[in-house]
Amino acid sequence: MKNFKFLFALIISLGLFSCDNSEKPAAPAKESGKIEFFGNTQGTTFTVICNDPIQLTREEIVSELAAFDDALSGYTPNSIVSLLNTADKGIYNYADRRGFFDTCYNLSQKVYAITDGAFDPTVYPLVDGWGFLRDNHNVPDSAVVDELIKLLGFTDGKHFKKMESTADSMGVKTNHILKLTDNAKLDFNAIAQGYSVDVIADFLEDKGAQNYFVEIGGEIRVKGVNADSVLWRIGIDKPVEHSTSDNRSIQDIIQLENRSIATSGSYRKFYEKDGVKYSHTLDPKTGYPVQHNLLSATVVTETCAMADALATAFMVMGTEKAIEFIRIHPELNIEAYFIYVNNKGRNEVYYTKNFRDKVIS
Asked: Which residue, 194, 229, 332, 342, is most buried by CB atoms nearer than 10 A?
């Protein structure tokens, strides 16, 4: 389950940036000057800014995002993932013409393996069982949780198994997945939004862009510099319960160069029942909301998909295990910023050395 994630793009051109979330009329292709497109996608908003003389229309961005949703959106009934989730066990055939589904599926299996299941796309039935998908605030009893856990696990061949694709006489390729468990379902929310940022960023680079800012639902990837020829600046929210886009406060501001950033936190998304607070961050191993001191995890990596997935995994692991994970995986080049509660009940910040160098306030 994707936790509420938000990185506020505080400063774009050395001044305050205010995003208009409303859909706007299509703008003509631009050959020079600053390009700015805003809109709605995936139940949230997007921002695309480019400071290069490329030809780009808003329709092109919207078309890319629509194709992405057709593959990976759990809110689109006829998307590849939605149809797989509703299918009975057996062989599920699908056409992944843009490769979005397979790329996300394969990367998800990689992250599942390296995080020892802290990141688990098969968590969908557990999230639904806890009432987080429909906001019905249902606290399941232990017997129900035990049954739901049996549906979890993204090891190849446990609930799903990828099969070799086939092609007809015209060369049209069909992909196949063997679904082994009827009620098993996939939820790519904790990686797909970050991956969609990469898709748009790669699309811009294919057009020759070298200086851009792409943000979808708070997940961000940047390259080069902004319109004032300085590195892009990003604000990190303070973990304040019930804060919104209208009343949040900024914890720190960082400069980002040719990297991606994502934040996952448990402080906004939770519900209370009978005096007990239940976090949206569920531990796939126990089946219950996590119980640790980590409030938010901000991750900087090369791709936004990886930053997105690791931020979620770290919220499951907790502060100490997340720090250890970073230590034993230098090959991932992870930069991280954690806000946690110390043993005196006060908020503290931990950041890796390479992240510290990015903080400017």
From this structure: 194
Taking the CA of residue 228 as centre, how many other CA atoms within 13 Å lie in the half-sphere pointing to its CB?
9
**Cα(114)–Cα(134) distance, integer angstroms:** 31
CA Rg, the chain, in Å?
Answer: 20
Higher pLDDT, 9 or 66: 66
Q: At what angle do helices 100-114 and 304-317 cross, to 10 degrees?
A: 40
- Assign 175 a pLDDT band (cuts: 50, 70, 90): very high
Rounded to whole angstroms, the Cα distance separating 104 from 11 reads 31
Q: How many CB atoms lie within 10 A of CB 102?
A: 17
Sign of the torsion formed by the C-alpha atoms of 128, 130, 133 and 136: positive
Q: Mean pLDDT over residues 43-62, rounded?
A: 95
d(CA 157, CA 315): 27
Dihedral sign for Cα atoms in the order 11, 13, 17, 21: negative
Report the percent of the chain where pLDDT is more than 70: 84
Report the C-alpha gap between 314 and 333 in whole angstroms: 15
Of 250 and 87, which is predicted with more confidence? 87
- 210 — alpha (psi -120 to 50), left (phi > 0) or beta? alpha
DSSP annotation of 79: S
C-alpha–C-alpha distance, residues 242 and 253, integer Å: 21
pLDDT of residue 66 exceeding 80, the answer is yes
Asked whether the beta carbons of 263 and 252 are under 8 A apart, the reply is no
**By the 8 A CB rule, do 231 and 40 touch?**
no
pTM confidence score:
0.89
Please enumerate in sequence order all residues whose Cβ is within 8 A of that of 229, keeping only pairs 6 or more positions apart, or say none: none
- Indicate the residue type of 36: E
DSSP state letter for 143:
H
Mean confidence (pLDDT) of the chain? 87
